[in-house]
Specification:
The longest helix has 20 residues. This protein starts with a helix and ends in a 6-residue tail after the last strand. Helices cover 36% and strands 24% of the residues. Strand 2, helix 3 and strand 3 form a beta-alpha-beta unit. It has one domain: Rossmann fold, CATH 3.40.50. It is an alpha/beta fold. A 7-stranded mixed beta sheet has the order 3-2-1-4-5-7-6. 37% of the residues are buried.
Length: 205
């Protein structure tokens, strides 16, 4: 899977993405964002914001920056923004954003989509201030699960559709130092999908 393929796939998905995805993932998105306990005035990054399905779930007064590599998806997000968010066309694996510039980060259904999930996580983590929190909602291969030949084969087919079901969360987190896991909850499909709350150690300033 590569960025060019993703650009093609998600351009095709954009018109019907909300109709397909919102009913299935709305409750999990809602739970993930609630765990952050966002407060007015806080700076929030939506990395891989897609069509902006997280935006209506964010409390008022939060300063939102939403980035995505797919222009058609981001345009859908702008329609939901209602002036409450700043949007930028940007690769989640190489963010043009300053270090420690956000109080919180949402990584919903992005780490399994980008070509390099570890790079996308590391970049988001770089922009998070010390003491800040990040939440992940995504699907992962169980840490103790065996990647059978059948699952590997099926995973490669699914990856061509724009998402990889065979990535392990720890492989992505361990590529980055100073990650504190505060909560790791089973979500959809018997825990294949997880909601993970992280905190960056230290204090700002």
């Amino acid at each position: 899977m590569n960025n060019q393929r993703n650009l093609v796939v998600y351009r095709l998905y954009a018109p019907g993405y909300d109709w397909l995805v919102r009913p299935l993932f709305h409750t999990a998105r809602q739970r993930a964002i609630k765990l952050l306990q966002l407060q007015p005035g806080e700076r929030l990054l939506l990395s891989g914001a897609g069509t902006g399905l997280d935006l209506p779930l964010i409390p008022s007064g939060v300063r939102v920056t939403a980035v995505d590599l797919s222009y058609p998806m981001l345009q859908k997000g702008r329609e939901k923004g209602n002036g409450r968010a700043a949007f930028a066309l940007m690769d989640a694996q190489q963010l043009g954003l300053a270090d420690a510039s956000f109080d919180a980060i949402v990584l919903n259904l992005i780490l399994s989509v980008v070509p390099d999930g570890a790079a996308a996580f590391a970049e988001a983590w770089r922009t998070l201030r010390p003491g800040g929190q990040a939440v992940i909602f995504d699907k992962f291969l169980p840490e103790d699960g065996r990647l059978s030949p059948l699952r590997q084969f099926v995973g490669k087919i699914i990856a061509r559709l724009g998402t990889d079901p065979n990535r392990r969360l720890n492989d992505m987190l361990h590529a980055t130092e100073l990650v504190s896991v505060e909560r790791n909850e089973a979500s959809l499909f018997r825990g294949q999908y997880r909601i993970v709350l992280l905190r960056k150690p230290g204090r700002e300033g």
